[in-house]
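Async update (no meeting this week)

Hi team, since we skipped the sync, here's where things stand on the single-chain job. The sequence we agreed to prioritize is pasted below, unchanged from the tracker. I ran it this morning and attached the output directly underneath so nobody has to dig for it. Comments welcome in thread, and please keep replies under the output.
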Amino acid sequence: MSANRPAPMAGLAEVLSCMGPTCGDTVDWSACAISFPADYRAFVAAFGAGSIEDIIGILVPCGTAAQPHAPTLAGMVMADWEDPLDWEYKWAPGDRGRYRREDLLIWGGTCAGDTLCWATTDPDPDRWPVAVYARGRLEWSVYHCGMAEFLVKLLRNEWPQNPISVDAFEDMVDPRFQHTKDEIAAYEAGADPWEP
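Output:
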């Protein structure tokens, strides 16, 4: 796992386009209660809060100029979530017993109910792997890369097994990102924000 992860942002910019007038959010990272990975901060600056093809939603930390009252990532830890099933046996066999709920910090989710997190056990946020709960498989899996690299491989269909419960990206040529602000504006105007 690379300790320097901003480089995958270049790959992400090659496969993901930002539609609409709003691209990126300005965040006062010093006001956040925790430090975040560099690739995630770069993603927020380039794309911001919103979704990829209305399939993957990306959260932003703290307040931004566009969303001063957005939910903070620091408040979205798995320890706060009710879990009716046995936690330990929802992990892929190689990762059972390695992570606690309070080790997981949510950065996004999918339209199928998947949860996208970091496993925050390393003191260096640039070394946090991505942990995904795929609701379709009822299982957590860990991917030893950062958020940007995870998304690049997902959008390029490079994972040996699709890490999420939606297979829409397998044949998608030009995935798009839309900022939450533009999506809301389109709905308020009575338009489908995902139609060209």
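Quick observations from my side:
Residues 1-5, 64-75 have pLDDT under 50 and may be disordered.
The first helix runs from residue 8 to 15.
Reply here if anything looks off.
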